[in-house]
Write a structure and sequence with these properties.
- This protein has helices at residues 17-31, 74-80, 85-98, 115-121, 157-163, 169-181, 184-200, 222-239, 250-258, 274-278, 305-312, 330-339, 354-362, 379-386, 399-402, 417-429, 433-438, 447-469, and strands spanning 2-6, 35-43, 51-57, 60-67, 102-105, 126-130, 143-144, 148-149, 244-247, 266-268, 291-296, 320-325, 346-350, 366-369, 391-394, 409-412.
- The protein is built from 18 helices and 16 strands.
- Helix 12 (330-339) links the parallel strand 12 and strand 13 (346-350).
- The chain has two domains: 2-165 and 214-268, Rossmann fold, CATH 3.40.50.2000; 279-438, Glycogen Phosphorylase B (Rossmann fold, 3-Layer(aba) Sandwich).
- By secondary structure, the protein is of the alpha/beta class.
- The strands form three sheets. It has an eight-stranded mixed beta sheet, with helices on both faces.
Length: 495
């Protein structure tokens, strides 16, 4: 079977959780004998029109849609999220070239959602895994400026009130692409330019400094609120045309249902990672001070890295060590160190590869996930669970699904650094908790089992589409076995 994956970022290069998962899933499906093609977006704000380029990554055909800025006004950009004629023509061309048996969409940001309808018109079954909240939150994360969690779009009113004046998303996507795809020297130059931009805006250059957050009593522009509402409605109508919709957790499904998606149309698909199977699962026990607390993944404000730095303040350095595993710019490192009161037990391990991950997991006694954003899953949580590491996490979103407070981890109110410090001190003062919590850490799904679930979904939607496309039976035709020879086995071909 040939499957076409659609993502925002190049899964061969990007370091995000979605890209990592898609790369692992593609590899597992390839080992099972299936053929994978990728289609992703590359933002090029200076270009006048979109382009489609093809390349090969080993045996994998990869297409990249290079897109310019989607309109000058916010209303134009909102419309382009759903339909964009020039890009739609390129997507139709991509489908004709690849001719997949199934289109599996993992991320539609940067690609018009009308891709679903384009594939349907071409007779292709469509599976969509909704890894984030893009269909009703253009910031993906349900986080408002000022690092305030958002309860939802409220029919576009919250979007227009809090997020309509944020910087153009093309710029942020370009910066992320540059950070993950360009050579180190160029990447460092982009980071320096971003830091300079923030300093000129009155900040310290650190992304953790909130400059001029919007006033909470700001009245939204009715025209912009309507544009957001139309985007959300049309996005929902388009996605509901897919053959199968997945979310990655129960809490994510509940948020989609809150935003008008029928509960019976959404299936929960627990994810897996190759690295989760490679992690050395063992019972974590206290051996000696300092206890090693670890933060894994993107060291960003919406992941709550600053909360851990602030919580480290006043925790005795001889009893606790705090390590951030992930890329940290120099200005962010300085800001986090200052938040911790220049805690002598605060360390920054820097960028790590998947080969490094196993070694890092062995060096952690307790993992800390203080996300301000509403996590739909948190893939680093799978890796920590697979290694038997207890988690201290923010009590919302999917984290609260796999961390059961007092049983296999500890939860604290989102955004509350003082409460996080209290949980850390509880472990520091009662180190026997480490073994108690570790013994109850759940085992994430195995990749083999996950692939079987995904393939069952593919086979089901392909079967249903073939049934729907088959011509109706002629009631006058004789039945097999009633004077006619039985039909032989039907030969089926796969791409």
């Amino acid at each position: 079977m040939r499957i076409l994956f659609v993502t925002r970022e190049d899964p061969h290069k990007a370091l995000t959780g979605v890209a990592t998962y898609v790369r692992d899933l593609a590899a597992a499906l390839g080992r099972a004998g299936h053929e994978i093609a990728h289609l992703h977006v590359s933002p090029h704000p200076a270009w006048r029109g979109p382009r489609l380029r093809w390349s090969r990554q080993g045996h994998t055909l990869t297409g990249v849609v290079a897109v310019p800025a989607a309109g000058r006004t916010e209303e134009e950009r909102l419309r382009a999220d759903v339909t964009w004629m020039e890009v739609e023509e390129l997507l139709a061309e991509a489908l004709r070239r690849v001719r997949p048996a199934v289109l599996h969409v993992h991320d539609l940001s940067g690609i018009p959602a009308s891709l679903v309808q384009t594939a349907r018109e071409a007779g292709l079954p469509v599976v969509v895994t909704m890894h984030d909240f893009w269909p009703f939150c253009r910031q993906f994360l349900l986080v408002r400026p000022g690092l305030t969690p958002c309860s939802g779009s409220a029919g576009g009113r919250n979007c227009a009130t809090y997020c309509a004046t944020r910087p153009a998303p093309v710029g942020r996507r370009f910066a992320r692409w540059a950070d993950e795809s360009l050579p180190r020297g160029v990447r460092d130059g982009v980071r320096w330019a971003r830091a300079l931009y923030r300093r000129r805006g009155g900040g310290s250059g650190s992304q953790f400094v909130v400059v001029n957050p919007p006033m909470p009593d700001r009245v939204p522009d009715p025209r912009i609120a309507t544009a957001y509402a139309k985007r959300e409605m049309r996005m929902r109508e388009t996605l509901l045309a897919a053959d199968r919709l997945f979310t990655v957790s129960q809490s994510a499904k509940a948020m989609y249902v809150l935003h008008g998606y029928p509960e019976d149309r959404i299936h929960v698909l627990p994810l897996s990672l190759e690295s989760a199977e490679l992690a050395r699962r063992r019972l974590r026990t206290f051996t000696q001070y300092p206890i090693r607390f670890g933060f894994l993944g993107r060291v960003t404000p919406w992941k709550g890295a600053h909360l851990l730095a602030e919580a480290a303040r006043a925790v005795p350095a001889e009893r606790a060590r705090f390590t951030f595993y992930g890329v940290v710019a120099a200005e962010d490192r300085a800001h986090l160190a200052a938040l911790s009161g220049h805690h002598p037990g605060l360390y920054f391990a820097g960028r790590y590869t998947r080969q490094d991950l196993i070694r890092h997991l062995d060096a952690i006694d307790v993992a800390v996930f203080p996300s301000i954003m509403t996590e739909t899953l948190g893939l680093v949580g799978l890796e920590a669970q697979a290694a038997g590491i207890p988690i201290i996490g923010a009590a919302h979103g999917a984290i609260a699904e796999y961390v059961r407070d007092g049983q296999n981890g500890l939860l604290f109110p989102p955004g509350d650094a003082g409460a996080l410090r209290e949980r850390i001190l509880r472990v520091v003062d009662h180190p026997e908790l480490i073994a108690q919590l570790s013994s109850a850490v759940g085992i994430p799904p195995r990749m083999g089992d996950h692939v079987e679930t995904v393939l069952a979904a593919y086979n089901d939607v392909v079967h249903r589409r073939r049934q729907a496309a088959a011509p109706p039976a002629d009631p006058a035709a004789p039945l097999a076995g009633a004077g006619s020879a039985p039909a032989g086995p039907r030969e089926e071909t796969t791409a």
